Amino acid sequence: MTARILSGKELTATLETEMRGEAERLEAAGSPPCLAVVLVGADPASHTYVRNKIKAAERVGIASVDKFLPDSTTQKELEGVIAELNADPAVHGILCQLPLPKGLDAERITRLIDPAKDVDCFHPSNVGLLAMGTPRFLPCTPAGVLALMTRNGVAISGKHAVILGRSNIVGRPLSLLLSRKGTDATVTVCHSRTPNLKELTRQADIVVAATGMTPEWVTGDMVKEGAVVIDVGMHRVEDASKKSGFRITGDVHYESVAPKCSAITPVPGGVGPMTITMLLQNTLTAARNPA
Ligand SMILES: NC(=O)c1ccc[n+]([C@@H]2O[C@H](COP(=O)([O-])OP(=O)(O)OC[C@H]3O[C@@H](n4cnc5c(N)ncnc54)[C@H](OP(=O)(O)O)[C@@H]3O)[C@@H](O)[C@H]2O)c1
């Protein structure tokens, strides 16, 4: 079987074109979309993520307000910045890059962001709305997974999806998205205490790997013929043949899994780029429905 490649890189380009039009319409209507990006500390990986988000926002015509704060920032100072952004009517979305440096309470910050500006969809009230089937925003990585399937014509309704991972960022919200009315998958959520994992994945029409446990641990013998496999995992693996000294790989062993699949996401270039795109979609949603 030749697997269809679900390319996040390609879909992102299409969605960015659509979003540019929407951003222009909002600007013409007097509500130019704006995303505030809060970054505390000097962690290089966080700086790279944030830079990529700001660049993507620029490409689609979303302005950004950058709040880059030093490592020495106190909880009170950070809360002050969030309060300022909550009160600013020109700011539609607020993203606080995680993890925060030691000593800062990320959960408290997440709860302080105005839910109407919570474009990461981490606030308990937004998670609650999602669980009730009436979401204000869609959680970014799960929405990216869903878009990769729906925009490529992958059938989901009535299918059995097995999700490996139950985190608050990926596995759990994805289970809500896939099982909600209108999407209609039957979902099994697996975690580190799930016995007989292979028996479950081999029954799955759709396998979503989101553990970050070990590179390429989901192998061909774990999926059935014709399955759709989505790889959310992201690992840096040493590779002397690369200039950087490493390559990026996922939870899925592509070489053994792809020949059995009807569709599969590559790593890199699959789910990764979609997460930022969905963050920008949420920012446009916020700009259409200001706080
Ligand atoms: N592409 C993107 O944009 C994007 C975005 C977010 C995350 N990621 C990547 O996705 C991966 C997961 O991220 P995360 O934030 O969800 O990680 P996380 O919070 O560490 O959660 C990992 C989940 O995997 C489960 N797990 C661990 N070992 C397992 C096993 N042997 N079998 C089944 N489940 C197992 C854990 O189970 P327990 O709950 O029992 O511990 C946990 O629920 C990471 O590689 C991360 O880098 C990518």
Compact summary:
The chain has 291 residues and is α/β, with parallel strands linked by helices. The protein has 10 helices and 11 strands. The longest helix is centred in the first third of the chain and has 21 residues.
Topology, pairings included?
Elements: E1 4-5, H1 8-28, E2 34-40, H2 44-60, E3 63-69, H3 75-87, E4 93-96, H4 106-112, H5 124-131, H6 140-150, E5 160-164, H7 171-179, E6 186-190, H8 197-201, E7 206-209, E8 227-231, E9 235-238, E10 246-249, H9 254-257, E11 261-264, H10 271-288
Parallel strand pairs: 1-11, 2-3, 2-4, 5-6, 5-7, 7-8, 8-11
Antiparallel strand pairs: 9-10
NADP nicotinamide-adenine-dinucleotide phosphate binds next to helix 10.
Structural notes for this entry:
With 291 residues, the chain is α/β, with parallel strands linked by helices. The chain folds into 2 domains: 31-114, Leucine Dehydrogenase, chain A, domain 1 (Rossmann fold, 3-Layer(aba) Sandwich), CATH 3.40.50.10860; 140-272, NAD(P)-binding Rossmann-like Domain (Rossmann fold). It has 10 helices and 11 strands. The chain has helices at 8-28, 44-60, 75-87, 106-112, 124-131, 140-150, 171-179, 197-201, 254-257, 271-288, and strands spanning 4-5, 34-40, 63-69, 93-96, 160-164, 186-190, 206-209, 227-231, 235-238, 246-249, 261-264. The strands form 3 sheets. The chain has a 6-stranded parallel β-sheet with strand order 1-11-8-7-5-6. It has a 3-stranded parallel β-sheet with strand order 3-2-4, with helices on both faces. A hairpin with a 7-residue loop joins strand 9 (235-238) and strand 10 (246-249). Helix 2 packs across helix 10 (271-288) and helix 6 (140-150) packs across helix 10 (271-288). The protein is globular. The model has no long low-confidence stretch (mean pLDDT 97). The site of NADP nicotinamide-adenine-dinucleotide phosphate has 24 residues, from helix 10.
